């Protein structure tokens, strides 16, 4: 299913926000790639820069924010170098974005059917009637019974789950190759969340698309994704196949994250976290996790670790694995 | 173990503005909470779980039903008696930021809760404030901070300090961890567990986060559309659930372990409106196991053993006779 | 002391607010020290010196009856500022508690007070003011009452809508959980958190009150003529503008403009200053 070709590659992405208090380095030096047909889960806590990353990919960061450095290469084309005009061909067509808070992202004054039809019209040479029919078809596809009537509804007449389905229909109407879901199920009830995830998985599989699921829910990633990337302070600190990650996470931050899960804590003691989160206004030199890391070494305070290749397709950004890449095995002893 | 709270048949109706309709938020609920335990109330939005918590604290008064605290029916208490019970029952809220007055410092937030008790001398009040704050790891240099200067986890700890300051016997925790990040959530849960160990507080933990409920609670009740559909020991309910709604709810939880396959037990559709509920089982319109009688007759509570009760026509009873739950316990 | 230092620090960092504060201070000083600042008595008419253009003796010139415009502009601050300050204070005193109670006790009481406010606000402010003053009689005290009466519904609405939104916050519920009395909840939890828009509006309304007073006096329904008041001064000077003697209307007009601007700027500053998250 997963091809070998890279569909999207983010290289050394830096997105800063220029605030009165100073420069907030929300995304700094992010590296990430998505292969064709892959569903990647990006996990991070609030403030880790997840949403800004998604916005940077489609080049939608606005003042006071700015992408200051980096490349977002989609099928060989750097999206950050394109003009607004050229970008429009990608947004909504090649790349579909599902945002959190669906109702806030839908126009309250336009019927949902028309909102979907308009996106379809923008990228296809069809007339209004055909576009409307396509919209109804999409609503049917996202599991709305009574799609014809629903297409006539306004967003406020819908429940949160329904509105989220409309957002998905909106993102998928032009059969994008890449789907970015930014906390798409946040705030929904578990039974609805489960339905929405079924839908996203189904569509991604059917259309052979790739997807990035941005979330703070490790459960969603474990159950739905093939790859996982962990974000901390605007950087990817660990990335690898889901099964390998949940077997044995490498980065100290990931370990702590998994240890916080109630499911794991029934059997394991939690290590208490010390120190505080680094502020994006004043990031330390060296590793971003040094303020909380229980294994912090001198080198962590001086040198920023590079993304180390520790296993097949498995990368981790931590000095503890420096030796492991040269001399396998010793780092694990240190962590034990 | 003695029962701290006995809740019997409480109902709460809210009128819908401008119409004659009523929303049935809580529909004939009975359960009891034992001293020193953590009782979990599981439910999705619109299930009425928060209304139950607020009814118990008399923040909203139930339309009908009986509530007993240590055997005393307190919902009809006069002002004086109610004030005594007030200090013994407290609440921690979901949104840590909005649950704090933005113009009060950490110290004022906690101390003002104690000022209500006029018999308390100023020195005792100060001492109790220091104690409560120390229990949540707040010390002198943070006393003068305002809520917006604190992280979400710290804000929630102030909320907890405010609740424990009058030394209550019982605390309603209304989704106290739902809006927090994973590691902060773990920190708050640990704090709650520690407080219970130290002073034997009884908790009512209201949440839709099933894994936290499983970790924290001793007994749980699952709510759907204002009714309890299943209740019992936490392990019974999580591993031996009989109600289709519990099955679907637990099947929907995505376990953070890729080796556990996802169950495909699903309910169809969405939760119906709580205005003018149909007769029969409320789940009938979504249930995969629905039969004709579900749409006609209210299901009884069936004792399936081990203090585990299921409100469904399909649950196999322990013995032949069906025992309504209100008469048990 | 600490509050004062915090206030002056914030003020110095906000240019608009600083200018506004400066204007208000100068106005107040003029009001207090008017007899010292003004070279002539405000109602001292020297007929042979009438209609003099601004010169070294009369820097703002003199009006029709030979009264010194500068002295009158300075003295007028006394009346205008008094009316504005007391009128606004009185309307706050009426509006805030009613708004608070109307929001806390919804239902019949809330409905009735709101409908009364609707009726009051349905009339054009100026017409209502004229009516009130002509019923009560036109003196300073009655203008203050008229202004209080007209502005109270505004504050009532502001407080009420704020309280209605804050009332649902969990911290109010927490206060009730703790067993606080209704009065305590109203004044300790609800009121401090709902005053910000009201205070901002009050500052801006000070300016309006001055405009209203001037307006009433301009048409002769306000302060009686020989008394130094900006509106009546403009009225006296208005016919002279055609014949080229612009100064006797112009300077009081400028005074009104600057004062209103000062209160508006200061109100804008208050909006930021009273934000609880600023601390």
Summarize the SSE layout with pairings:
The complex is a heterotrimer of chains A (336), B (329) and C (279).
Chain A: E1 6-19, E2 22-35, E3 39-43, H1 50-57, E4 65-74, E5 77-78, H2 84-90, E6 95-98, H3 102-105, H4 112-123, H5 128-141, H6 147-151, H7 160-172, E7 178-182, H8 190-207, E8 210-215, H9 218-224, E9 227-232, E10 235-241, H10 242-247, H11 252-259, H12 262-265, H13 298-302, E11 308-311, E12 314-316, H14 322-326, H15 330-335
Parallel strand pairs in A: 3-8, 3-9, 6-7, 7-8
Antiparallel strand pairs in A: 1-2, 1-4, 4-5, 9-10, 10-12, 11-12
Helix pairs in contact in A: 4-5, 5-7, 7-8
Chain B: E1 3-15, E2 22-34, E3 38-42, H1 49-56, E4 64-69, E5 72-73, H2 79-88, E6 89-92, H3 106-115, H4 122-135, H5 152-164, E7 170-174, H6 182-199, E8 202-207, H7 210-216, E9 219-224, E10 227-233, H8 234-239, H9 244-252, E11 301-303, E12 309-311
Helix pairs in contact in B: 3-4, 3-5, 4-5, 5-6
Chain C: H1 2-12, H2 15-32, H3 34-37, H4 69-104, H5 108-122, H6 125-136, H7 140-167, H8 170-177, H9 182-194, H10 196-218, H11 230-242, H12 247-273
Helix pairs in contact in C: 2-4, 2-12, 4-5, 4-7, 4-10, 5-7, 6-7, 7-9, 7-10, 8-9, 10-11, 10-12, 11-12
GO molecular function, one term (chain A): ATP binding
EC number (chain A): 7.2.2.11
Keywords (chain A): ATP-binding, Cell membrane, Ion transport, Membrane, Nickel, Nickel transport, Nucleotide-binding, Translocase, Transport
Quick gist of this model?
The complex is a heterotrimer of chains A (336), B (329) and C (279). By secondary structure, chain A is an alpha/beta fold.
What does it look like?
- The complex is a heterotrimer of chains A (336), B (329) and C (279).
- With 336 residues, chain A is an alpha/beta fold.
- Chain A has a domain at 252-335.
- Chain A has helices at 50-57, 84-90, 102-105, 112-123, 128-141, 147-151, 160-172, 190-207, 218-224, 242-247, 252-259, 262-265, 298-302, 322-326, 330-335; strands spanning 6-19, 22-35, 39-43, 65-74, 77-78, 95-98, 178-182, 210-215, 227-232, 235-241, 308-311, 314-316.
- In chain B, strands 6-7-8-3-9-10-12-11 form an eight-stranded mixed beta sheet, sandwiched between helices. In chain B, strands 2-1-4-5 form a four-stranded antiparallel beta sheet, covered by helices on one side.
- Chain C is mainly alpha-helical and 279 residues long.
- Chain C has one domain: Orthogonal Bundle (MetI-like fold).
- Chain C has helices at 2-12, 15-32, 34-37, 69-104, 108-122, 125-136, 140-167, 170-177, 182-194, 196-218, 230-242, 247-273.
- Chain C is elongated, with a radius of gyration of 22 Å.
- The two termini of chain C are 16 Å apart.
- The model of chain C has no long low-confidence stretch (mean pLDDT 87).
- The interface between A and B is large, with 43 and 36 residues.
- Chain B: Residues 5-250 form the ABC transporter domain.
- Chain B: It comes from Peribacillus cavernae.
- Chain B: It holds the Pfam family ABC_tran.
- Chain B: One of its GO terms (molecular function) is ATP hydrolysis activity.
């Amino acid at each position: 299913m997963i091809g070998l070709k890279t569909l999207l590659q983010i290289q050394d992405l830096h997105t800063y926000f220029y605030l009165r208090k100073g420069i907030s380095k929300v995304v700094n030096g992010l590296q990430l790639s998505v292969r064709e047909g892959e569903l990647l889960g990006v996990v991070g806590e609030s403030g880790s820069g997840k949403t800004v990353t998604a916005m940077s990919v489609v080049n939608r960061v606005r003042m006071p924010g700015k992408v200051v450095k980096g490349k977002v290469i989609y099928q060989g084309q750097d999206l950050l170098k394109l003009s607004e005009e050229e970008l429009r061909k990608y947004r909504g067509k090649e790349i579909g974005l599902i945002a959190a808070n669906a109702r806030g992202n839908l126009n309250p004054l336009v019927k949902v059917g028309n909102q979907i039809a308009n996106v379809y019209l923008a990228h296809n040479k069809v007339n209004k009637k055909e576009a409307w029919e396509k919209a109804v078809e999409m609503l049917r596809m996202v599991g709305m019974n009574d799609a014809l009537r629903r297409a006539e509804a306004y967003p406020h007449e819908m429940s949160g789950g329904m509105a989220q389905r409309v957002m998905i229909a909106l993102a998928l109407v032009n059969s994008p190759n890449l789907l970015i879901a930014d906390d798409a199920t946040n705030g929904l009830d578990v039974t609805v969340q489960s339905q929405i995830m079924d839908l996203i998985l189904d569509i991604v599989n059917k259309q052979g698309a790739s997807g990035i699921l941005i979330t703070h829910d490790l459960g969603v990633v474990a159950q739905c994704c093939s790859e996982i990337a962990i974000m901390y302070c605007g950087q990817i600190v660990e990335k690898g196949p889901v099964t390998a990650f949940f077997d044995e996470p490498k980065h100290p931050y990931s370990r702590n994250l998994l240890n916080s899960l109630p499911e794991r804590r029934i059997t394991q003691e939690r290590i208490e976290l010390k120190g505080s989160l680094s502020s994006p206004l004043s990031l330390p030199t060296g590793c971003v996790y040094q303020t909380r890391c229980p294994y912090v070494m001198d080198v962590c305070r001086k040198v920023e670790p590079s993304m180390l290749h520790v296993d097949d397709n498995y990368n981790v950004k931590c000095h503890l694995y420096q030796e492991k890449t040269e001399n396998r095995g010793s780092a694990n002893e240190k962590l034990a | 173990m003695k029962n701290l709270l006995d809740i019997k048949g409480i109902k709460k109706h809210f009128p819908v503005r401008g119409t004659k309709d009523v929303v049935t938020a809580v529909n004939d609920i009975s359960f009891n909470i034992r001293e020193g335990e953590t009782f979990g109330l599981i439910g999705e939005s619109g299930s009425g779980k928060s209304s139950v918590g607020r009814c118990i604290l008399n923040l909203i008064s139930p339309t009908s039903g009986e509530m007993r605290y240590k055997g005393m029916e307190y919902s009809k208490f006069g002002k004086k008696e109610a004030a005594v019970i007030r200090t013994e029952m407290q609440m921690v809220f979901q949104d840590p930021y909005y649950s704090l007055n933005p113009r009060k410092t950490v110290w004022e937030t906690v101390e003002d809760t104690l000022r209500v008790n006029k018999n308390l001398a100023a020195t005792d009040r100060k001492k109790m404030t220091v104690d409560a704050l120390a229990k949540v790891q707040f010390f002198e240099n943070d006393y003068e901070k305002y809520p917006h200067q604190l992280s979400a986890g710290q804000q929630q700890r102030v909320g907890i300090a405010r609740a424990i300051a009058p030394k209550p016997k019982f605390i309603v925790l209304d989704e106290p961890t739902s809006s927090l990040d994973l590691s902060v959530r773990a920190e708050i849960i640990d704090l709650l567990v520690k407080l219970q160990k130290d002073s034997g507080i009884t908790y009512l933990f209201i949440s839709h986060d099933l894994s936290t409920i499983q970790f924290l609670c001793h007994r749980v009740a699952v709510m759907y559309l204002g009714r309890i559909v299943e209740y019992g020991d936490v392990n019974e309910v999580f591993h031996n659930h009989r109600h289709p709604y519990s099955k679907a709810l637990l099947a929907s939880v995505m376990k953070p372990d890729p080796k556990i396959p996802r169950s495909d037990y699903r309910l169809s559709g969405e939760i119906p409106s709580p205005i003018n509920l149909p007769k029969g089982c409320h789940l009938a319109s979504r249930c995969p196991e629905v039969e004709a009688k579900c749409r006609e007759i209210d299901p009884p509570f069936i004792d399936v053993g081990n203090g585990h009760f299921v409100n469904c026509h399909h649950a196999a009873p322990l013995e032949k006779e069906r025992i309504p739950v209100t008469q048990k316990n | 002391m600490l509050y004062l230092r915090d206030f002056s620090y914030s003020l110095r960092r906000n240019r608009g607010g600083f200018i506004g504060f400066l204007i208000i201070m100068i106005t107040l000083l003029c009001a207090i020290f008017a007899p010292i600042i003004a070279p002539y008595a405000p109602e001292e008419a020297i007929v042979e010196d009438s209609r003099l253009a601004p010169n070294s003796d009369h820097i703002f010139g003199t009006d029709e009856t030979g009264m010194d415009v500068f002295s009158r502009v300075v003295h007028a601050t006394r009346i205008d500022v008094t009316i504005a300050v007391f009128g606004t204070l009185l309307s706050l005193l009426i509006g805030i508690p009613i708004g608070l109670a109307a929001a806390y006790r919804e239902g019949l009481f809330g409905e009735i007070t709101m409908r009364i406010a609707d009726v009051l606000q349905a009339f054009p402010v100026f017409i209502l003011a004229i009516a009130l003053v002509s019923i009560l009689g036109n003196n300073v005290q009655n203008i203050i009452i008229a202004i209080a009466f007209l502005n109270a519904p505004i504050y009532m609405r502001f407080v009420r809508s704020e309280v209605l939104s804050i009332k649902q916050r969990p911290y109010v519920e927490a206060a009730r959980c703790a067993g606080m009395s209704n009065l305590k909840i109203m004044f300790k939890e609800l009121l401090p958190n709902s005053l910000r828009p009201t205070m901002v509006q009050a500052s801006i309304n000070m300016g309006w009150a001055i405009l209203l007073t001037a307006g009433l006096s301009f048409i002769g329904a306000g302060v009686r003529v020989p008394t130094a008041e900006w509106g009546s001064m403009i009225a006296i000077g208005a016919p002279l503008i055609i014949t080229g003697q612009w100064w006797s209307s112009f300077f009081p007009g400028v005074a009104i403009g600057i004062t209103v601007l000062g209160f508006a700027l200061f109100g804008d500053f208050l909006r930021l200053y009273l934000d609880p998250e600023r601390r």
